[in-house]
Amino acid sequence: MKKLRIYLDTSIVNFLFAEDAPDFRRVTEDFFAVHAQKYELFASEVVILEILRDPNPQHRQKLLDALHRHPVAMLPSNLEIERLADLYLARGIIPAKKREDALHVAHATVHGLDIIVVMELQTSGQCPPRRLDRRREPAGGLLARFAAALAAGGGR
Questions:
Q1: What residue spans define the domains of the chain?
Q2: pTM for the whole thing?
């Protein structure tokens, strides 16, 4: 059986060291310790650039070490990814201030990955994992809306 190809956003690596979210830290540690080998894991230079902006040098190094310690392959960037990210932004599919998010999605799209995994701590203290899965997405889901918006030349 073919392994799912998963793109990991910077937030996933960051949750390995989330002192303020111990439950999500445990889930993330468990994912890497027990489940990661079941998948092909990918990230991009966007993840590295986001990590390098961390103002805490010790935390920054922990994040970089975690990427090297776990089986996460780095996806190369190219002009097609840049153009697709620009298109997502220009058409309002991804908010204009979220260029790095557009680049994450463009990397996963251009490289034909199955899932994008993102965890973000919300202001309510909730941390719902969001998953885009091309094979399991219901009709009218997020990927279908992306495609429709691009085809129509419109935004949200």
A1: 5-152
A2: 0.76
